[in-house]
Amino acid sequence: MLKKSFMHFMMNLRDDRERRNEMFDHLFQPININGMILKNRIIATPTGDDFEEKAMGGAALVIAGHAIVEPGKSSFASPDEPYLFSKYEREKTRERVLKIHKGGAKASIEIFHGGQDARVHDYAKGPSGFVRSDGVEVKEMDEEMMEETLDWFAQTVQGAKKIGFDSIFLHFGHGWLPAQFLSPHYNHRTDEYGGSIENRCRFPLRILETIRKAVGTNYPIDMRISAYEWIDDSIDFEDVLYFLKKAQNYVDTVQVSSGIDKIFESNIHCITTNLEEVMPNLKYAKKIKEELDIPVSMVSAILTPKMADEIIAKGYVDMVAFGRSLLADPYWPKKAMQGHPEDIVPCLRCSNCYHIATDHWNVGCSVNPRYHNEDFIPSNRCIGKAIEKKHVVIIGAGPAGLKAAITASDRGHDVTLIEKSNSLGGLLKVIASEKHKEEVQRLLKYYRTQIDKRPIQVLLNTQATPEMVKALNPDSILIAIGAKERILPISGIDNKKVVLATNAIMNPDMLGQKVAILGGGSIGCEIALELAEDGKDVSIIEVTDLLAANANSLYREALRQKFLLHDNIHSLLSCSCTKIEDEKILYKDRNGQEQIFTYDNLILSTGLLPQIDLVEQFYGICRDTVAIGDCIKPSSIMNANYEGFVNALNI
């Protein structure tokens, strides 16, 4: 015990020294935006609904969702989306302001118009008329319709100001109404509102002029813009600069984004996956900052306080905006401010939080069980101590076991964590060793750091047995032993050239030049991409007609675009492997015809199997025993993390 206490003392001393050297002074400098003093440079974007916790978590400015402009018309969420400033919605809207102010942040609201994509069946209008794919007729806006919209913009921003929002956030990007006029993808007019950028920015500038007159000179206005739309007929960046130079006469700051919300191919550059570079909009923001006389902020994949502080220190931007990062950890700003970046729960950029990606099947956050479950899952800061202190034994140190151990310890229990390997992480260790997995590397480091910070007894290199666990005299047992890799009963599967996916990931040097992958799930596709980037010739054999079927739709699209960059990736869909020989693989194609190709190595990536028989052995030792994570149903980091958290809360 004395030795462990001394080790914790030395670790805390080291951490204190590191904190003093990593206080992110530029990120936490105040800034004045037209009389609104922000305590730091962190903006919480209108992502998710828990505005209060983002404010409590330390963001300086919290954008409390969006307000449609024209009641019953400009909606993008649903045809009956309420107008936030109508008589019987005002109290709920005011509550958003009060909750944000309670947390010590300034409150803003996104002002939004769906334009041609309004989800109201008898109403949609935009720069050009046409019939949408859903049969809705989009009306080309004439002068009367423009005046109607301008009047509603004025009323809406006046309502925002009157109800107490400290500023407004105008959505002029991602393919919504103002962007529809700016972009040649949408705007096909031949009158004074179409053609040249001078004409295309005419109506958006009229909107800005109207808004400025409506709220007055001394009221902060922010505006989001897409610097590039990631489609063939995107607006040119030079045209964006032209518009912004005109727009800065009416707005006080601009937020740089990119992409289009509604176009799948473009959306993955708007809300990037882990396959894309970090800070993808920095190149645009730097140029805009050089050209404008107003403060500039940037959104998308600014993943760490160090990244944020550095780009502010270098003068590239004035502020940084966070969406998914504050869903993963609403207290990201406060942890950074207090010099504890190691305690920030990292966003994985998995997009499971995004309803478009999941099509509403399983919306949630891979690392924050509370997100989208706020009605019944407490905040980490509110879980409280258990009434009775217990000895909790957790078998397995993958994501489910690690989250359970951390949570049970925070509740005041004595925790023993048993892991058969020589380090913590389970399958996370394998995933973290792949390319494009820096976010998972951060998550693994986070878990390990949190375990080190707590008085958890960790038994590594220890194979748990029922007898051993019983000898520990546990009050509660959580079984988190993970899954095992599936091996299909194919003739020749025991060939020495056949390797399991985990072995291939951890030992890429063992693979030859021509590699086949049996199984085109997300893991198989990620292996294929990495090997192709290394110059190998890769063929995926997948029995279904869809690659990465277990991944969300945006991640599949991101993979598809990456695959298109490599002509050394070959996808054999609706094909099944029938026999493996020493130098060739036999498989049936989609027509049932037998085909052959030669290979150097075959990687098995055919999924995971639960370990029910092994799990069952640990039941009966104590009454409070629960199996969690992949050992009972192989799934995802999100489900493992959730199960670890909620089951530890129940102890």
Structural account:
With 651 residues, the protein is of the alpha/beta class. The protein has 23 helices and 28 strands. Strands 3-4-5-9-10-11-12-13 form an 8-stranded parallel β-barrel. Strands 16-15-14-17-28 form a 5-stranded parallel sheet, covered by helices on one side. Strands 19-26-20-21-22 form a 5-stranded parallel sheet. The radius of gyration is 27 Å and the shape is globular. The protein starts with a helix and ends with a helix. The mean pLDDT is 95.
Brief synopsis:
It contains 23 helices and 28 strands.
How do the helices and strands line up, and which of them pair or pack?
Layout (H helix, E strand, L loop, with lengths): L1 H19 L10 E3 L2 E3 L3 E3 L6 H6 L4 E8 L21 H13 L3 E7 L12 E2 L3 E2 L5 E4 L2 H21 L3 E5 L5 H6 L14 H4 L1 H14 L5 E6 L10 H11 L5 E5 L6 H7 L11 H10 L4 E4 L5 H9 L5 E4 L1 H5 L3 H6 L17 H4 L32 E5 L3 H12 L3 E5 L8 H6 L5 H15 L4 E3 L6 H6 L4 E4 L4 E2 L12 E3 H6 L7 E5 L3 H12 L3 E6 L10 H12 L4 E5 L2 E5 L3 E5 L5 E5 L2 E4 L3 E2 L2 H5 L7 E4 L9 H13 L2
Parallel strand pairs: 3-4, 3-13, 4-5, 5-9, 6-8, 9-10, 10-11, 11-12, 12-13, 14-15, 14-17, 15-16, 17-28, 19-26, 20-21, 20-26, 21-22
Antiparallel strand pairs: 1-2, 7-8, 18-27, 23-24, 24-25
